[in-house]
Amino acid sequence: MDGMDIILFHSVYGLRPAVHAAAERLRAAGHQVHVPDLYEGQTAGTAEEGQALLDRIGREELLRRAVVAAAPHSDKGLVYAGFSWGGAVAQNLALGDEKARGLLLLHGTSDIAEDAAVDELPVQLHVADPDPFESGDWLNTWYLQMQRAGADVEIYRYPGAGHLYTDPELPDYDETAAEQTWKVAVGFLATL
Length: 192
Description:
Layout: E1 5-9, H1 17-28, E2 32-34, H2 47-57, H3 59-74, E3 79-83, H4 85-95, E4 102-106, E5 122-129, H5 136-149, E6 152-159, H6 175-190
Parallel strand pairs: 1-2, 1-3, 3-4, 4-5, 5-6
């Protein structure tokens, strides 16, 4: 069976080694992975610096860059994936792409347009529990809205993990939760 064509979006920190390592992990599982640099070479050392960088470039421009990065690959049917803020980008693109094959969210979600509609899009979310950016109430609402839009959603919660627990260079890192996340995510991708 051929692997998936995946586009993987970085977090607010930018394109860091952890994103490249994740892409290599997915390639080792037989997938083709595209890793766009939406910050065009800039990275941040803290979440606050990353937020300032995001604000300076602008959300609209970053979304435009994401669409441009995905466009050459979307005719094949992409799996959209992303870390934290990059997960929000991936979700927005996947819900707008009728050929999307799946959505893998690591640490982040986004608002859902009321008119969003997909045809049983497989979605998997991995999130810390609790997560300062993805509260339990938010996730319950998000889950119901995604189901209403037609997505087939699975949520995996990791008690005690920090927000970006898959990035070994950040204080949030939790090796056990990260390894479990990758095991489940690779299994999910194999079913698509």
